[in-house]
Amino acid sequence: MFQPKIKEKVWSVNIEKGMIELWMKEGWYEFEEKEPIFVIDTPPPYPAPFWHIGAAISYAQQDIIARSRRMKGYSVLYPIGIDRNGIPVEWYVEKYEGIDMWKYPREKFVELCRTALDKYDDNMANIMRRLMLSGDIDHKYRTDLDEYRALTQATFIELWKRGLIYEANRPNNWCPRCRTTIADAEVEYKTEKGKLYYIKFPLKKGGHVLIATTRPELIAGCDLVLVHPEDDRYKGLIGKKVILPIYGREVKIAADKEVDPEFGTGMEMVCSYGDSVDVRLFRKWRLKERKVLDIDGKLTEEAGKYAGLSVKEAREKIVEDLRKEGLLEKVEEIEHKVPIHDKCKSEIEIISMPEYYLKQVEFVEELKKIADEMKWYPKKHKQRLLDWLNSITMDWPISRRRYYGTEIPLWYCKKCGYIHVPKPGRYYKPWKEKPGIKCPKCGSEDWKGEERTLDTWMDSSISVLYITGYKKDEEKFKRTFLKGEKLRPQGTDIIRTWLYYSLLRVYQLTGKRAFEHVWINGMGLDEKGRKMSKSLGNVIYPEEILDEYGGDALRFYSVMEGAVGDDYRISKERIEGAFKSLTKLLNIARYVSMFPQVEEVELEETDKWILSELNEAKERMLRAYDEFDPHKGIHHLRKFTHELFASHYIEMTKERARGNDEKAKAVWYTLHQVLKDVLRLLAPIVPAITDYIWRSLYEGSVHKEKFPKVDGKYEKYRKYTERIVGFNEKIWKEKKERGLSLKSEIKTEVPKELKPFEGDLRRMHNIK
Ligand SMILES: [Zn+2]
Ligand SMILES: [Zn+2]
User: Fold this and answer.
1) 219 Cα to the center of ligand 1, angstroms
2) d(Cα 89, Cα 66) in Å, to the nearest integer?
3) Residues of the chain under the 70 pLDDT cut
4) Ligand positioned closest to the Cα atom of 343
5) What integer pLDDT is reported at residue 519 of this predicted model?
């Protein structure tokens, strides 16, 4: 009698792999569409040869939410997607095929991109399985599917018809590296060492003024010089004219409150366009635009003898010329913020191009309301969205001059300029297809297809609509999007892009709030709290960890490590600690597995006491799951399992358990009761080990179970916990100090308050 049903004494990655195979055979993802429905709008990752461990962890954390909602009784729509549109794959192809996108046939280039993306798809799916994501990995959706792109185009067509999309030629962020306009949301800033040049500008009436600038190469674009109206140094100069060095053109001096008198000399040249301030001032003063830079970031004819040079070359050259002419007073080293493109990190220029815009300014106030209505986990990140909303001053430029993206579905009549907008529903490629109709205005059949694509955020911002069957399956859309509870999990770095654009687009299209819950994960840093990067040599790949410790250990570690939304440090040592915890759990289960399962019998006081503590652990853990933050409950649950249950309860009842009477049965019953509930509580976090134990001892799979119910039946016994723990520790300490084994006899009194537990305590400590 009393042989453990579980044989293993150490948890292993191989057992975990066995579980994964078993689930794959059984089909581990199903979505029943039974109410209540919970929708998780999983971030579709971009395919890459290597996955950052922090990203892998965030997906595991989202899976914990999915599993916990299922155990709470929800049907969970938890699709897995891959985001495949955009610039990174285009570069990859250019680099590895040694070709230039603009000099290569578009059709073939698009094919090369597709092949490159496919290569990484499988690798990512494998990691997702090893992480045990309980989503639909076998039927991943891809944002470059014809069906997905057709939906993006359908939404473009709808908004076009409603007058929310328009074309305009205005100065905007331009990435010379990617040769495309980009939105403010895609602009990042880096701090850089730079130079501030103090240049003499001759005054028309004789003498000169000093103007400090970081961009002397843009002097050709200068159309105005500004000073602050209250700056006494320059009051007499307002209305006078300066002569531009090198170019000799006359430019007016005017006053504007936006000028910072503290910067440089307090005198500022306004050029088209050095930065966004220039753009604003240009508009305000209605100046004449001078295109000094072309789309490759090179100087134009407007720059005279510097035409054809890159910004850096031109700057060096003009500084040299100014110095020769005695117009360069001095050069100061400074640190300044330079705008860069978030994808390629190249410096951004400001260039005017005709682009399509989606209206967003007029929606800002409504979106602020939506931001307030949503529940945020953690709350602190809401401010980031509000800050972004408050900074929006212009509409969203949505056209991109790239190839691997969703095409703008428009044709232009070459004869009369009529714009043809097709019917929504199909995927259109105007750069290679004919619309097949006559121009309704002039009868011509000579069309020019639009060649630009859409900003990839136009695609990914409707992921929640795509996964819920918008415009495809009315019934599904009603049950999931309209009636379900929807959660958006994502990182802080894409609040102003993915989250913001999703809220905007869904609101424009449906008039509804896209999500009830927004869950923001923290970032995975290295052990010293630094970002992981190739250059620092501190990158850990998920495969390494999964091979050595497995998915359960990684998942358990991530929940133990920190609260939702906080950055955390990734340490192999602590992941190994999590792995050891799993072995401890296995051994607790192994001990329990020695005893038969019985119906509830009359319980002893010790049994009631541990059940009261089990109830407390349940309550805390279930509350934590409700807040999508299992970290809040896990330390208590671990302490309950490893300490109160394993070190105290199991030791107190060891002898009683080995009997064959009602009192023994009371222990057996309690042991299984506790183990079952602990497994159910841990199942979302460590799916492999909990299911392995469950299937070894009980019916079915733990993943088909619901969370245990909380009940306060034995609540009054919790008051004994401190005393029981204190008494046991006192005796252990005493025996240790006296060099006695734990089993040796000892003479002592069981304190009066612990009388209800006297029998178990005496047997445990061998008290005579
Ligand atoms: Zn770029
Ligand atoms: Zn026409």
Assistant:
1) 25
2) 30
3) none
4) 1
5) 98
